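in:
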């Protein structure tokens, strides 16, 4: 089994796919990705996922997230969420000639991911933040298919962003609202306290929109 097949089996394409990779650790990095269909549908899908470290996130971007984004864009949304995933190179090769500039963009993004070499876990996450930002700047507001990605180098960074965007999504285990400081304390303890970790993981798993 090659690397693509391994990741494809671990993270099947679909709305209900669970892209969590194990419990949260001090090196965990987060990804938010979303796809919005053009009007009149305007259907939106988005989810959070996290990885044990930046190397796992890079592999997920190369073999799961980027192929899915490219398939949606280059096939003008014709590829449904439950369609078989193809390697990025195959998706690019099968796209119409008119997509030349966009095909080149995806090729360059994949190349930059493959050659990224941050000295530390956070340095590598910062490189991938920039690559995700490039994709979002290009495809995030197209008035057709909107594709977005955001990378967060730690659970606390992701937690602060989520709370500031949607504080009502943050509750305690009984469903009662909690303050920003209480939530960030949970995020800080998520790697060393499994009860806190599970609560943080469940909150992100249920958060579908930015």
């Amino acid at each position: 089994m090659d690397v693509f097949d391994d990741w494809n089996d671990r993270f099947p394409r679909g709305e209900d796919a669970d892209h969590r990779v194990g419990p949260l650790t001090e090196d965990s990095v987060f990804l938010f990705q979303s796809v919005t269909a053009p009007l009149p549908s305007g259907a939106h899908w988005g989810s959070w996922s996290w990885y044990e470290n930046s190397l796992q996130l890079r592999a997920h971007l190369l073999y799961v997230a980027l192929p899915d984004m490219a398939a949606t864009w280059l096939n003008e949304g014709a590829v449904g969420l439950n369609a078989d995933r193809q390697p990025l190179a195959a998706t690019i090769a099968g796209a119409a000639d008119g997509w030349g500039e966009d095909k080149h963009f995806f090729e360059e993004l994949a190349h930059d991911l493959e050659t990224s070499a941050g000295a530390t876990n956070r340095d590598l996450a910062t490189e991938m933040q920039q690559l995700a930002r490039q994709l979002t700047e290009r495809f995030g507001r197209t008035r057709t298919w909107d594709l977005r990605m955001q990378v967060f180098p730690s659970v606390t960074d992701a937690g602060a962003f989520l709370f500031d965007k949607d504080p009502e999504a943050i509750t305690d285990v009984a469903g009662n609202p909690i303050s920003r400081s209480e939530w960030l304390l949970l995020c800080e303890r998520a790697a060393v306290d499994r009860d806190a970790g599970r609560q943080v993981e469940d909150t992100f798993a249920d958060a579908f929109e930015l």
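note: The first strand starts at residue 29 and ends at 36.
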